[in-house]
Amino acid sequence: MLSVILAAVLSPDDPDLIARLKEKNHEAIGEVYDRYGKLAYSVTLRITRNQQTAEDLVQEVFLRVWNRAHKFDSSRGSLGMWILCIARNVAIDHLRSTATRIARRQSTETDLEKLCFHDDFVSRISIMQQMKAVRAAAANLNANQRSVLELAYFEGLTHSEIAERLNQPLGTIKTWVRTALISIRSEMTQAASR
Amino acid sequence: MTHEEMNDLYELYALGAIEPEEAGEIEAHLREGCPECQDMLRRALAVTAGFPALGGIVDPPPHLRDRVIGSIERLRTSASTAWRIAYIALAASIALLAWSLTSYRTLRSDRTQLARLESEHTRLEILIQLLTNPETRTAQASTNENAPLGRVFLGRDNRFVFVGSRLPAINATQTFELWLVPAKGAPRPAGLFRGEDSHAVCLSSAPVDLENTAAIAVSIEPRSGSNAPTTTPFVIVPLS
Predict the structure, then answer these.
(1) pLDDT by residue (tens digit) across B6-18?
(2) Which of A85, B44, B150, B212 could link B141 by a cystine bridge, Cβ 3.0 to 4.6 Å?
(3) How many angstroms separate the CA atoms of B49 and A80, rounded?
(4) Do the chains contact at A156 and B48, CB–CB below 8 Å?
(5) Which CATH number is A148's domain given?
(6) What is the pLDDT of residue A56?
(7) What is the DSSP string of B185-208?
(8) Domain of A126?
(9) Complex ipTM > 0.85
(10) B window 37-66, beta carbon within 8 A of A
(11) How many of the other CB atoms lie within 10 Å of CB of B65?
């Protein structure tokens, strides 16, 4: 998984490809799909757990990429991370809407995309280190720790929703999340020092 | 919430998976510009950037590529079509505007022509009525052979018709002008006309005070007419 993600997300953006995408070049979107379609599909399928829905959402993801390409700023992040972010947001928003969790705060794609391009966001090299670290750390997590992180990332659940889903006390969930994050941060710190 | 407590939440905040109340508190704090929390958020974003590694990779079905590209192609085509329609609409609007202007000019020209014809029709009706009315009086200038001949038909409504023949030739910058010549005083202009083949028929432009008019004269004047004769009248028709 990691090698695919790294290849897809961390490979240097082709300036010409991005330029052609911004110019609404038809062939460019095909190249972008070839590069990132697998990743977008994997994330949306992992989140929705429904093949048909994942296909619908991948279509929506690339339509958004097509329509918003002119806003993409390569100086603030890679194209792959941007598409990954859109894919996750689209899928989680779908989950939330279909689960009719209307009362819950729905993070808009704009908000989350801004986070993806937060000022001074990590460089591509450090992202690669972080992803390696996450993978290394995930191997050391127990099932509960891994489960809470997956529910948070792939389903966008909050502490209380995870607690409800896993039928565990809120305090326990917070502990699992906290220890899992400490483990990942520790791995990241070690990775950064290597 | 303390910084340490917030530090435990930034990853979840970065994922949009935090409780709304906690998210509101964090956002308010970030807006205050706390450098420590800004740094925490950056670290959290760095951590979550690697979270896709938690899932598995799946090959999308082969038909999905065609579906995705097809939907974008349709969007692109429809946008292109929309632009084409917009261009056509713009061109049609310009053509319509040009046609409207032309039509307006034509209509205005037609209206001018119609008004002119209506005026001419009215003038001819008055002329026929005046010439065929048995009460119409006639006056004629004493003539010499080959000299211009002038005859005036005087209607009861104080309109008159001047009929001229053997009229002198005039150029494009000249016109004939009728004059009401009183017994005393200066002649008053009574209308302009141009002849054809040395003949002319001219209806007075309005009823005139024939009671105080001793004669009707015709002179050659500049094309726009004069307020007083600038040449010697070549025809003088006494009305008495």
Answers:
(1) 777 777 777 766 7
(2) B150
(3) 11
(4) no
(5) 1.10.10.10
(6) 93
(7) S--EEEEEE--BTTBEEEE-SS--
(8) 2-139
(9) no
(10) 41-43, 45-61, 64-65
(11) 16
**Last residue of one domain, picked from the residues A95, A120, A139:** A139
First to last CA, chain B: 122
CA-based nearest distance A155→chain B, Å: 8
Cβ contacts below 8 Å, chain A against chain B, sum to 162
Domain of A6, CATH number, reads 1.10.1740.10
A111: Cβ–Cβ under 8 A, 6 or more apart, which residues?
B16
Give the three-class secondary structure for B164: strand
Give the separation between CA B137 and CA B239, rounded to whole angstroms.
Answer: 9
A19-33, A117-131, A139-153: range with lowest mean pLDDT: A117-131
* Shared domain check, A193 and A104: no
Q: Considering its fold, how many domains does chain A have in total?
A: 2
For residue A62, list chain B residues with Cβ-Cβ distance below 8 A: 68, 71-72
pLDDT exceeds 60 at position A166: yes
Q: pLDDT tens-digit profile of A45-97?
A: 888 888 999 999 999 999 999 988 888 877 666 787 788 888 888 888 887 77
CB contact under 8 A, A45 and B58: yes
pLDDT given at position A193: 66
Subunit contact B57:A5, Cβ cutoff 8 A = yes
Q: In this predicted model, what pLDDT tens digit does every residue of B173-184 receive, in sequence order?
A: 999 999 999 988
Which residues in chain A are contacts of B6 at CB distance < 8 A?
A: none
Residue closest to B208 by CA, chosen among B143, B162, B175: B162
pLDDT digits (tens, 9 = 90+) for B70-119: 888 887 776 666 667 677 777 778 888 888 888 777 887 888 888 878 87
Q: How far B89 CA sits from the closest chain A CA (Å)?
A: 24
Task: Say whether both A98 and A6 belong to one domain.
Answer: yes
* Phi, psi (rounded to 5 degrees) for A192: -65, -30
Best mutation target, B48, B63, B73, B77, to test chain A (most A CBs within 10 A): B48
pLDDT on residue A11: 53
Give the contacts of B230 (CB within 8 A, at least 6 positions apart).
B219, B221, B222
β-pair type (B200-203, B160-165) = antiparallel
Interchain contact, A130 vs B46, CB within 8 Å: yes
Q: What is the mean pLDDT of residues A137-142?
A: 85
**Residue pLDDT, tens place only, B118-140:** 877 777 777 777 777 777 888 88
The two structure tokens encoding residue B174: 């000249």
Does residue A145 share a domain with residue A133? no
